[in-house]
């Protein structure tokens, strides 16, 4: 229970989405305008950063506010200012030591190919 309280405290340090939007509006900007100016095809792309980690969008929003992204979302960044995300890469399909299923070969069979 203590771990969940600590996690909630960390997230409470982050700006709320409405605070970020209000700060942009005070500068006569919107997330849609920032997305267009930065070449995003979807005008709603930057709204993702308000709810989940998205380093590129966070940087764009922070630059528009003349701040650093860790100042707005401190729970998403380490003390060195780098994103504190896990190591990227494909996740293993099977746990280590597990035996592959014969069904997996049949399920993924291509037309005209062999298992």
Helices and strands, with pairings:
Blueprint: H1 2-12, H2 17-26, H3 31-37, H4 48-51, H5 55-64, H6 69-72, H7 102-107
Q: Radius of gyration, Cα only, in angstroms?
A: 21 Å
Distance between the termini: 48 Å
Helices and strands, in order, run as HHHHHHH
Mean pLDDT: 80
- Summed up, the helix count is 7
Assign the CATH topology of the domain at 7-82.
434 Repressor (Amino-terminal Domain)
Strand proportion:
under 5%
Number of strands: 0
Kindly state the percentage of residues in helix.
Answer: 40-55%
Specify the overall morphology: elongated
Overall structural class, as computed from helix and strand content, comes to mainly alpha
CATH superfamily of the domain at 7-82: lambda repressor-like DNA-binding domains
CATH architecture tag of the domain at 7-82: Orthogonal Bundle
CATH class of the domain at 7-82: Mainly Alpha
Q: Give the low-pLDDT segments.
A: 4-10
Largest beta-sheet characterization: none
């Amino acid at each position: 229970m203590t771990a969940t309280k600590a996690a909630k405290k960390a997230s409470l340090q982050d700006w709320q989405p409405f605070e970020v939007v209000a700060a942009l509006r005070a500068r006569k900007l919107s997330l849609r305008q920032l997305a267009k100016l930065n070449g995003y095809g979807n005008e709603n792309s930057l709204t993702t950063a308000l709810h989940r980690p998205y380093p590129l969008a966070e940087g764009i929003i922070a630059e528009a506010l003349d701040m650093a992204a860790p100042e707005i979302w401190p729970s998403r960044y380490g003390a060195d200012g780098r994103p504190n995300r896990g190591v990227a890469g494909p996740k293993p399909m099977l746990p280590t030591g597990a035996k592959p299923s014969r069904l997996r070969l049949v399920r993924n069979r291509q037309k005209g190919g062999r298992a």
